[in-house]
Amino acid sequence: MGNCLGSDEAAELEVVKNSGQPQAAATAAPAMAPHKSEGSMSSGSGPSSSSRSAGSSMSSIATTTGRSGGSTSTSSGSRPLRAAAAASYREEEEEEEEEKEGRILEAPNLRIFTFAELRAATRNFRPDTVLGEGGFGRVYKGWVDERTMNPTRSGIGMVVAVKKLNQESVQGLQEWQSEVNFLGRLSHPNLVRLLGYCVEDRELLLVYEYMPKGSLENHLFRKGGSFEPISWNLRLRIAIGAARGLAFLHSSEKQVIYRDFKASNILLDTNYNAKLSDFGLAKNGPTGGDSHVTTRVMGTYGYAAPEYVATGHLYVKSDVYGFGVVLLEMLTGLRALDTARPAQQHNLVEWAKPYLADRRKLPRLVDPRLEGQYPSKAALQAAQLTLRCLEGDPRSRPSMAEVVLAIEAMEQLRVRPRDEAAPSGHAHGHGRSSRPRTGPGRAGSSSHHRQSPSAR
């Protein structure tokens, strides 16, 4: 894990055990699919789809029964049926609200795949199905039946992302366990869904919903025909989704500290809805009135909170610092760390803070690829929020619930005609020499970032 800060133990994790060959669907949830149709890592109906279909059937039965007895039917059976239909409808609404707000399961409810099934789903892990690659393995594109989760022919059924871990990686095993035990129990619209796993001999694999728009990192920093600059409004929308995902983790009964918040771990579905992925470093938050947990330092340089790097003390608001770094990346279009820039500009946070605090200097900081198409007031509010998230004292940082409200308020601000009419270089022209410079291409390159958002 060359770009990370250390290694960690998974002693507190419940190890997923499987004797011999894994069962094809011992704890299978074949109908388990995304809350909305989306699809790098699936698409389909949510875990409660069977409940919803039952409710719909009950409703239609009640209607048919009532009508069959005539327009003034008052048969003794119609009232119980109508009551059952109403109860079913209320249950359906409650389930939909629960899906929207998120929930935590008592135990992982995942499909257990055999290695043969995932080999078939990915066409024997063919190179042309590779979605990404990282320190802990490759991520492959696969196809499964939406209902049974059995492998299907290429292009048929539901697309999934299959992460195959390197057999030599000890740390990969720990992170695999963490993924299963955390992400396998968490359900929220802004968290990538883990559909299942495979543990067979020395093979460890994870199966996720497919996110077709890739990672935020790619859209911010990659150049090429497939990655157009994302607009101000879309950046805010992505920031809100990611913030809601973190807020859910922090507000759960047992607080979860994500510990690896960065642009490459924010994946986007077809409609650019943001979802947090990669829970390999996630950790349970403090209990019993403690303010923090003490652990070996892990994460990615440039995103990890200073108090955590210095002491190993991990706070819930250590995640808020990481969010502030990503918000700064979205505001500037620059990487958190980039050694291709001049020495004093390697670390984006250190270099940018004076600009964030100065209303007059701020326009020089904003990503020129936005071409001035953003509300000045919203940019100022984003800068102020970024500074709050990057406070040195974790107690001074806002909660993620407060962050969500702040960005939602920014979203209500619209580009004014004066801003729209401004030339693309109005805010940056005289200040371009002050912006960080990179090698070939403004986004530069950095050895601190993995190649794939999903391949750890």
TrEMBL record:
Gene3D superfamilies: Phosphorylase Kinase, domain 1, Transferase(Phosphotransferase) domain 1. Residues 22-79, 436-446 have a biased composition (Low complexity). Residues 1-103, 415-456 are annotated as: Disordered. Keywords: ATP-binding, Cell membrane, Kinase, Membrane, Nucleotide-binding, Serine/threonine-protein kinase, Transferase. GO terms for cellular component: plasma membrane. Residues 447-456 have a biased composition (Basic residues). This is non-specific serine/threonine protein kinase. It comes from Zea mays (Maize).
